[in-house]
Amino acid sequence: MAAEDARPAVLLNPIEGDPTDADSHIGGPMLWPIDEDWPSCDADGEPFVGAVQLYQRDFPELPFPDGADLVQVFLCTLDHDVPGPDVRLVWRDSTTVFELIEEEPEPSAQEELYVPTVNVFEPIRYTEHPSKISGGTKIGGWTAGGPVTFACPECGEEQRQTLSLGTYEPSGDNVEWVFGEDGNLNIFLCPKDVRHPIKVHID
Ligand SMILES: [Zn+2]
Ligand SMILES: [Zn+2]
């Protein structure tokens, strides 16, 4: 097996828990400052739902830009023209957040299949090859449905499979969201600048 096929990956291995905004989690409270507008979907005006947040101290494998130590993943939990939820990433410096939003806005309607249970992580670090790919929620590695490539629409650089949300977890403890045909929602980022437009690929 070629060495360049070997990619580091972190299986997040979610388990039900009771995280705070100071923890990495799926479906828990987001670290969101009181003086910043909560993100909302351009297509339907509904507030996004805080889906995942990952701290650098827990997951240094993520490509945090300078000055950020937290990445937050938001979903608009309605279907869009491209099937699946809309996805927004926020890279944040958690040390600059002092006063938190009192209550997270809730959308007036949601597709239940995009709403996760509340989970913390028991991460498993491993090396992934395209011939043997995990379908669970993970950082890095390969696209579970088979390798695909996308170019950054801003600079043309080949985007990198960075975060994948899985319908099925290898542990069997699914977080009860469903993407595509029981697949994964894969988030591709530009290696030059993670704030360039992202690509979401459901397989
Ligand atoms: Zn939307
Ligand atoms: Zn780019």
TrEMBL record:
Listed name of the protein: DUF1963 domain-containing protein
Species of the source: Lentzea aerocolonigenes (Lechevalieria aerocolonigenes)
